[in-house]
């Protein structure tokens, strides 16, 4: 074996220093539709890991956030602030078309990239064989929640199998998504799967993150607060929280539900609060700036998002990073049982998992878990401290970035 460990038989003059220099020049190409300033959980996932990789060894090929002057200006301003190279495709949706594949291959060669990370395996991972032919030595494809849905439909299931055959590693969020995606892969590809969940910035989300100021701003000082931070869509279960409020208020009369976030379900939720007779105990903040999210978590005593699976398993929670952000903030959590959400909770230690459906059971279980937490400050403190410690042990971004670096 050559001393540099990169050849079976070393050429004349080959040395370990050559190997180190060669390794230092290796770069990674990220190919993704999901990248800021486009908002969303996958976007935050990719950006947080990218920031923890060596910037001089990273090139991002991403779609444009949205058309028009405003979108272009926001995208250009964001890209200019990044420590790594960002190349934008003019389209708002990257697909594995011949044109996109050719451009990705050209970027790979121009920047000397030897590894590729597909920010979402489906569908961009279909470009894997072409990028390998262009010179990529390692291909990693990350899955989220939607690939678990792909695994249930015959046509998309076959595409997932092709992605598994054409890449070196497919990553998964947790056991729920792993088991479903693995069923669509060949046994060889399934055996190469590696867990890579999203993480938490424990320095940003922490106890004392500014919740007192948010409480004062919203007039909630001194009141027990259940907080839910999420996009307002039916799957997240904000309606379950509203329906559980009458039972909660019967035991904790001054309790309030703080719903943080925007989305298409807001009008329905406001109407439900009125019809249920609890509108005075519900606060809607609408969308809030990302910089204020930690403080909004901190405004709560308990975090709850009783999410549920919809559309026959096609609309499902991949993991639920919000539970971990709440744990990092020192709050006990109540999660729904949709998809991989239970992976973000240690039942009885950091919080509880309740049924997301059927509705009657979900409402009853949610109220039964929230009432004792709101009534018992010591229980909240114990669970909050355990959740904070668990995030520091397992869910820090630097640990997850190191795992991806090894895969690449």
TrEMBL record:
Record PANTHER family: SULFOQUINOVOSYL TRANSFERASE SQD2
A Pfam family that the UniProt record links to this protein: Glycos_transf_1
Protein name: Glycosyltransferase family 4 protein
Keyword line: Glycosyltransferase, Transferase
Residue ranges of domain Glycosyl transferase family in the record: 213-390
Gene3D superfamilies: Glycogen Phosphorylase B (3.40.50.2000)
Glycosyltransferase subfamily 4-like N-terminal domain sequence ranges: 39-202
């Amino acid at each position: 074996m050559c001393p540099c460990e990169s050849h079976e038989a070393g050429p004349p003059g080959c040395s370990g220093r050559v190997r180190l220099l060669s390794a230092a020049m290796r770069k990674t190409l990220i190919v993704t539709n999901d990248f800021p300033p486009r908002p969303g959980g996958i976007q935050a996932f990719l950006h947080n890991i990218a920031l923890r990789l060596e910037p001089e060894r990273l090139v991002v090929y991403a779609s444009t956030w949205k058309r028009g002057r405003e979108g272009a200006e926001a995208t250009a301003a964001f890209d200019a602030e990044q420590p790594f190279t960002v190349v934008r495709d003019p389209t708002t949706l990257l697909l594995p078309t011949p044109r996109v594949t050719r451009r990705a291959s050209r970027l790979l060669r121009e920047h000397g990239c030897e590894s590729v990370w597909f920010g979402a395996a489906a569908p961009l991972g279909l470009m894997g064989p072409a990028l390998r032919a262009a010179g990529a030595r390692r291909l990693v494809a990350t899955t989220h929640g939607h690939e678990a849905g792909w695994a249930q439909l015959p046509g998309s299931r076959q595409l997932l199998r092709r992605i598994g055959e054409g890449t070196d590693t497919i990553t998964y969020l947790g056991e729920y998504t792993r088991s479903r995606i693995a069923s669509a892969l060949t046994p060889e590809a399934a055996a190469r799967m590696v867990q890579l969940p999203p993480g938490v910035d424990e320095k940003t989300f922490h106890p004392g993150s500014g919740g007192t100021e948010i409480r004062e701003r919203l007039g909630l000082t001194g009141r027990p607060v259940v907080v839910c931070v999420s996009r307002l869509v039916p799957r997240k279960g904000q309606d379950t929280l509203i329906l559980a409020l009458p039972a909660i208020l019967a035991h904790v009369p001054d309790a309030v539900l703080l719903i943080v976030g925007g989305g298409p379900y807001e009008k329905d939720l406001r109407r439900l609060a009125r019809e249920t007779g609890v509108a005075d105990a519900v606060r809607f903040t609408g969308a809030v700036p990302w910089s204020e999210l930690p403080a909004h978590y901190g405004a709560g005593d308990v975090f709850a998002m009783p999410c549920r699976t919809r559309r026959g398993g096609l609309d499902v929670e991949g993991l639920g990073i919000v539970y971990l952000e709440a744990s990092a903030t020192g709050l006990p959590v109540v999660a729904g049982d949709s998809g991989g959400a239970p992976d973000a909770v240690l039942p009885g230690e950091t919080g509880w998992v309740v049924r997301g459906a059927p509705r009657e059971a979900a409402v009853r279980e949610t109220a039964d878990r929230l009432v004792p937490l709101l009534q018992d400050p010591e229980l909240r403190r114990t669970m909050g401290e355990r959740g904070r410690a668990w995030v520091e042990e397992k869910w820090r971004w630097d640990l997850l970035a190191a795992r991806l670096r090894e895969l690449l």
